[in-house]
Amino acid sequence: RPVPSFDNSISQGSSNDRVKHWLPWTLIGSGLAIAGAGVYLNMMAIDKANQADGMDPMLPNYSNNFDTTFGQAQNLAIGAYVAYGVGAACALLGLDFLIGWPIPFGTDNSRTVARSWRLTPVVLEQGGALVLDMNLP
Cα separation of 104 and 10, whole Å? Predict the structure, then answer.
């Protein structure tokens, strides 16, 4: 009785092959767009902080206006930093997929080389980090 064999390699034109082409570039582009939004939020935060700094202390309700404007600047800055982090994580994940995806080889591309490294995002209590995992021979 013959035993069926299953070939898990990526064949040319398969759905895995198509994903291999658009997924990394989509992640990289999205990451850069999100980081660009962070730059815009940071510029708005700087503008609000300059507005708060330039207020005349002799005006009525100075304290309330200053607190409100400076609080808006702080919230925009936090949003910018979050966008930087999320954008960088997306772009690095896309770069990891682009560079570290299994590479087909052989005369019929039936065998693949597994990647020997990967970037793993880690969330810590004090912040986040990227860990480089390497498989050494």
Answer: 7
For 84-98, the pLDDT digits (tens) are: 999 998 998 888 777
- Which DSSP string do the residues of 38-74 spell out, in sequence order? HHHHHHHHHHHHHHHHT--TTSTTHHHHHHHHHHHHH
- The closest of 50, 113, 111 to 76, measured between CA atoms, is 50
Tell me the sheet residues that pair with 123: 128
Q: What is the spatial distance between Cα 62 and Cα 70, in angstroms, rounded to a whole number?
A: 12
> Residues 45, 80: contact at Cβ < 8 Å?
yes
Burial class (CB in 10 A: 0-12, 13-18, 19+), 91: buried
User: Strand, helix or coil at 125?
Assistant: coil
Task: Express each pLDDT in 54-70 by its tens digit.
Answer: 988 888 888 999 999 99
Report the alpha-carbon distance of residue 44 to residue 50 in Å, rounded.
Answer: 10
Task: Find out whether 18 and 60 touch, Cβ atoms under 8 Å.
Answer: no
